[in-house]
Specification:
Mean pLDDT: 84
Helix content: under 10%
Low-confidence stretches: none
Largest sheet: 6 strands, antiparallel
CATH class: Mainly Beta
Strand order of the largest sheet: 6-7-1-2-5-8
Number of domains: 1
Length: about 100
């Protein structure tokens, strides 16, 4: 099943969190923070302005992005977990 986001929405998949700290301590899954870095897997066509003109998206599939910790709506499709966010909820593109 494919997910096709509408308007200015983006489907992202969280990048796996590191399981060890910089000092080498292994973290249990309950001690790990929710990852804020995600990869874009689908992008909507963009939002429309007041005149009805389409405003194109500034992100694309494959970009790695930073999002707020608790932004978006989490969904599960075919056993995979995704988050759907608005483009404005994306804080930055990771290069």
């Amino acid at each position: 099943m494919n997910i096709k986001p509408l308007n200015d929405r983006v489907v992202i998949k969280a990048v796996e969190a590191e399981e060890t700290t910089k000092s080498g301590i292994i973290l249990t899954s309950s001690a790990q923070e929710k990852p804020q870095v995600a990869e874009i897997v689908a992008v909507g066509p963009g939002a429309k302005n007041d005149d009805g003109k389409l405003i194109p998206m500034t992100v694309k599939v494959g970009d790695k992005v930073l999002t707020g910790k608790y932004s978006g709506t989490e969904v599960k499709v075919d056993g995979e977990e995704y988050t759907i966010v608005r483009e404005e909820d994306i804080l930055a593109i990771v290069e």
